[in-house]
Predict the structure.
Amino acid sequence: MKGIVFTEFLDMVEKKFGIEVVDHIITESKLQSEGVYTSVGTYDFVEMQSLLINLSKKVTIPLDDLIYHYGLYFFNTLIKIHPGIFALYKDPIELLSSIENHIHVQVRKLYPGAELPTFKIEKKTEDELEILYFSERAMYMFAKALMEKTFEHYDQNSQIRLEKIENNGTKVRFLISKKHGAYQKN
């Protein structure tokens, strides 16, 4: 897993819960890297799992909720470091349907060795998208958060439902529909 995912995660934890919680989860996780990450490095996903599990225990927030909130946070990083990708598309359905064949191709060029989930488009219309998500990491709530933020970025309302095809979350169906009208920011 690319280091930027770790560095941004620890940044989020520090901002939301404080540096003491960062120190706690690193210490409790007994990481091979000792919690020292660079954004361009590559690290074992087991370390992210351990950090997430220990954070969940420390702050008593369910794991899926933490992963979802991290996805919301990480979207802002994507906007900062890859604004050109979002400028290429004028519509969230178009962007989301291009994940596998365009966006992930570009990500692999920038980050050789990146292990990304696989997305398969099952159905696509102007207002609806059905995507199958495959990943041994089961970070589908991270993907859901990124999808929601994509609609928000394009000032569009959406409904995104998911169905676990595999109970462990390694295969998930996303049912996405565009709702007409502007996105209402809270």
The two ends are 33 Å apart (CA to CA). Confidence is low (pLDDT under 50) at residues 181-186.
